[in-house]
Recover the amino acids of this structure.
C-alpha cells in the first residue's frame, strides 16, 4: 500500500488548561476524501492548520512527502494584501501552473477577477478563496467550512468540481448533504483524540451514538466497581495486611482512572420563549415589487403566511432574500403593493452578518446588555453564568471579548440572545453558519416544536428539508414561486434545481457569454417554436436521469478501496462523472434559456 501523502501522529496541543489535542492523528492518502467532524471548539480547525503547516503542535510528528503540494482554505480568508480578486487568486499559482486555470475557476464561481478586495461580500470572499485553492490543482486540499456564505448554485457547482478533482481532500463542514455527497471516510475529533470510520459521513452519526452509549456503559461499570471497593474499605478490611494494601492501591487507581476520563461535551439547551399567540394571518403580501436602480429583484409577489407556518426562502446570492425578509416583516416598504403584519405579532430576528455583536465587549456584557449580571429570559432574571452554560460557554469565558470567539461560538451567542426574548415569529437569516452538527440537530428540533411562525433563509439543503413546511424560491425575471415542502420537494415539483438560476449571473459582471445570450433571447417578441416547447418538456426527464447517473457514479467512487483495487475503473468512473456533470450543467442552462423564451412568448 502506498505511503500517505500527509501524516500527523500523536499530536498534542494545549492553550492553557485542558489539552485541545491529546494524541490526535490524521493520515491523507492519494485522492483521499476525508471529512473531519467534531463539536465546535473541539480543535478541528486547529488540526487542519497543523496539517497545513501554519500551526506548530507542542508535541507529535508531521510528515509531508517531498514535492507534495497543499492548499488550505481557512474559515476567514485574508485578502487585504491584494487589490483585486484576480491578483489574489493568481498568487496561489506556482511556476509551471496553467495561468488560464485561475480565470476559468473564477468564471465558474461567478467572479470576473476585477472585483476590488476591499469591497467584497462574505460570499465573494469565500468564492475568491476557493479559486485561489482550487486553480493550482494541488495534491491535497484542506477545506475549512468551504460552503459558508455560498449560495445553493455555487454549493452545487463546488460539489461537482470537487467530485471530479484529482486532489486528496480533507473537509470540515456543517452541511450534511455536502459531506454525504463527497466523503468516503470520516475522522471524528472528540476530547482531543481522533477516531476514524472508513465509511461515508452518512454512517457516522449512528456509529458515534453507539460509541458514546458503550462509553457511558463502561463508565457506569467503573462507577459501580468504585462503589463496591469503597464499601469494602469501610466494612470489609481484614487482618490480611498485604492483600488489603494491594486492594487499596487498586481502588486509588480506579479513582484516578475515573478522574482522568474526559466526558463528552453536553448538548446546547435550545428553547424559544413563546409570546402570546398571534393572529391566524401573520403576514399578507399583495403584489409587492422592489427595485434598486435599473434592477428589479422582486416582481408582483403575493403570499400569505399563517400562524405555525415555517417558510424557507431560497435563492442565489444577490437574488434579494434579505430584502424580501425586510419587506415581509415591515422593516422596508415595497415600491408597489402592500404588506400587512397580523395582530399581536412579536418578532425576534437573527441576522446572518451578526452585525449587532460588538466585538469589543465581553461575552457576559453581550448577553446582559451591560446591566448587572443577569439575563432577562421570558421577563425573569437569570444569572448570566447559568444561562451561558445552556449554550456550552464556560464560566471562564464570561470576560472573553466577543471578537475572540470562534465562528461557532458567535453563532451560539446570537442564538442565546435571540431565544431569551419572547416571540411568536422567528426570522432567521442564515442561522446555520459555523454551527456544529449537534447544535444544528437541536436547532432543528426546537424550530419543529416551536408553536409560532418561522421565516428561514438558508443554503443548507438538509436543514431546509428537515425544518420548513414550504419554500419561496427566486426564479428568473425577479419572480418568486412558492412550493409546498422542503428543498427536495421543490426539486421534484420544479424540475431542474436552483442551479438553473445561476446561469444568468455572469452576464451582469462579464457582459457576455451564454447567460447574456439567454437574457437577450428572452426579450418580448422572441420566437418560441414547437421544437423549443418539445425540448422544454423533455429536458426535466433528461436532467433527472443525469442526476441519477451522477449519484450512481458518485456511489461507486465513495468505495474507499476502489482506487487500490482497480485504478483503471476509478479513473474511468471519475472521467464519466466529470462528463455527466458537464452534461447536467449544459442541460440546466438550456432549460433556463427555453423557460425564459417561453415566459417572454406567453407574457
Amino acid at each position: 500500500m502506498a505511503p500517505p501523502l500527509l501524516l500527523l501522529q500523536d499530536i498534542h496541543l494545549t492553550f492553557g488548561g485542558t489539552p485541545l489535542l491529546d494524541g490526535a492523528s490524521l493520515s491523507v492518502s492519494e485522492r483521499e476524501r476525508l471529512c473531519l467532524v467534531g463539536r465546535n471548539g473541539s480543535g478541528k480547525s486547529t488540526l487542519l492548520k497543523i496539517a497545513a503547516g501554519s500551526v506548530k503542535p507542542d508535541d507529535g510528528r508531521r510528515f509531508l512527502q517531498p514535492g507534495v503540494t497543499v492548499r488550505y482554505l481557512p474559515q476567514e480568508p485574508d485578502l487585504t494584501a491584494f487589490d483585486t480578486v484576480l491578483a489574489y487568486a493568481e498568487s496561489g499559482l506556482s511556476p509551471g501552473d496553467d495561468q488560464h486555470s485561475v480565470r476559468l475557476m473564477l468564471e465558474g464561481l461567478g467572479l470576473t477577477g476585477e472585483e476590488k478586495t476591499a469591497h467584497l461580500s462574505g460570499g465573494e470572499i469565500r468564492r475568491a478563496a476557493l479559486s485561489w485553492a482550487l486553480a493550482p490543482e494541488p495534491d491535497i486540499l484542506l477545506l475549512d467550512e468551504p460552503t459558508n456564505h455560498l449560495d445553493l448554485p455555487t454549493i452545487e457547482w463546488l460539489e461537482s468540481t470537487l467530485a471530479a478533482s484529482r486532489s486528496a481532500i480533507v473537509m470540515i463542514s456543517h452541511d450534511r448533504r455536502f459531506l454525504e455527497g463527497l466523503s468516503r471516510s470520516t475522522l471524528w475529533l472528540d476530547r482531543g483524540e481522533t477516531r476514524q470510520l472508513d465509511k461515508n459521513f452518512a454512517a457516522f452519526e449512528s456509529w458515534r451514538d453507539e460509541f458514546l452509549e458503550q462509553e457511558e456503559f463502561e463508565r457506569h461499570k467503573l462507577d459501580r466497581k468504585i462503589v463496591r471497593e469503597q464499601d469494602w474499605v469501610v466494612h470489609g478490611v481484614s487482618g490480611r495486611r498485604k492483600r488489603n494494601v494491594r486492594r487499596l492501591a487498586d481502588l486509588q487507581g480506579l479513582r484516578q482512572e475515573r478522574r482522568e476520563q474526559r466526558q463528552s461535551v453536553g448538548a446546547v439547551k435550545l428553547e424559544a420563549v413563546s409570546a402570546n399567540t398571534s393572529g391566524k394571518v401573520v403576514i399578507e403580501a399583495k403584489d409587492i415589487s422592489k427595485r434598486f436602480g435599473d434592477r428589479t429583484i422582486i416582481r408582483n409577489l403575493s403570499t400569505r403566511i399563517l400562524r405555525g407556518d415555517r417558510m424557507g426562502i431560497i435563492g442565489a446570492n444577490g437574488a434579494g432574500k434579505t430584502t424580501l425578509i425586510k419587506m415581509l416583516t415591515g422593516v422596508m416598504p415595497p415600491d408597489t403593493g402592500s404588506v400587512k403584519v397580523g395582530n399581536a405579532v412579536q418578532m425576534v430576528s437573527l441576522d446572518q452578518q451578526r452585525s449587532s455583536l460588538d466585538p469589543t465587549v465581553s461575552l457576559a456584557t453581550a448577553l446582559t446588555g451591560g446591566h448587572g449580571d443577569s439575563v432577562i429570559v421570558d421577563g425573569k432574571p437569570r444569572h448570566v453564568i447559568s444561562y451561558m452554560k445552556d449554550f456550552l460557554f464556560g464560566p471562564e469565558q464570561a470576560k472573553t471579548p466577543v471578537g475572540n470567539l470562534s465562528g461557532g461560538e458567535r453563532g451560539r451567542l446570537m442564538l442565546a440572545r435571540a431565544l431569551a426574548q419572547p416571540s411568536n415569529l422567528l426570522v432567521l437569516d442564515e442561522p446555520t453558519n459555523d454551527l456544529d452538527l449537534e447544535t444544528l440537530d437541536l436547532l432543528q428540533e426546537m424550530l419543529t416544536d416551536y408553536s409560532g411562525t418561522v421565516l428561514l433563509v438558508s443554503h443548507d439543503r438538509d436543514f431546509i428539508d428537515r425544518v420548513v413546511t414550504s419554500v419561496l424560491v427566486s426564479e428568473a425575471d425577479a419572480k418568486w414561486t412558492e412550493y409546498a415542502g422542503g428543498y427536495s420537494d421543490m426539486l421534484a415539483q420544479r424540475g431542474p434545481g436552483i442551479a438553473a438560476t445561476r446561469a444568468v449571473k455572469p452576464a451582469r459582471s462579464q457582459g457576455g457569454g451564454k447567460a447574456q445570450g439567454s437574457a437577450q433571447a428572452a426579450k418580448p417578441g422572441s420566437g418560441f417554436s414547437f421544437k423549443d416547447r418539445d425540448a422544454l418538456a423533455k429536458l426535466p426527464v433528461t436532467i433527472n436521469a443525469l442526476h441519477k447517473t451522477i449519484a450512481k457514479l458518485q456511489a461507486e467512487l465513495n468505495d474507499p478501496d476502489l482506487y487500490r483495487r482497480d485504478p483503471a475503473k476509478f479513473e474511468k468512473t471519475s472521467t464519466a462523472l466529470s462528463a455527466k456533470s458537464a452534461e447536467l450543467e449544459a442541460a440546466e442552462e438550456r432549460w433556463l434559456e427555453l423557460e425564459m423564451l417561453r415566459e417572454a412568448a406567453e407574457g
Notes: The radius of gyration is 27 Å. Residues 499-526 have pLDDT under 50 and may be disordered. DSSP finds 20 helices and 20 strands in the chain. The CA atoms of residues 206 and 212 lie 10 Å apart.
